[in-house]
Amino acid sequence: LMFDRTMHEGAGIERLPGDTSREEQLAIYEDAAGRKVEGLLFHEIFAAYRYCVVVVQIANRLVERGILPADNQFWLDNPPTATLRNLLNS
Question: What is the spatial distance between Cα 21 and Cα 6, in angstroms, rounded to a whole number?
Fold first, then answer.
């Protein structure tokens, strides 16, 4: 669900026709788990936070290797951080 939200909401990529919606994905998961998901907002905020940590680590490695300039803002301005920002403001 977090990758879906990040790509469609954070990155602004349109959902392809026939692509499974978030609601459908959640229903499939709940059916497979045999129970309803509780505290979805908490879990999505935590997932977005973890995703942001990974992106920051990647950005730091790219700077260390000289691929990104040291003054880049990728660690701050990227689809996962936009998604986390939106979740925290909801």
Answer: 13
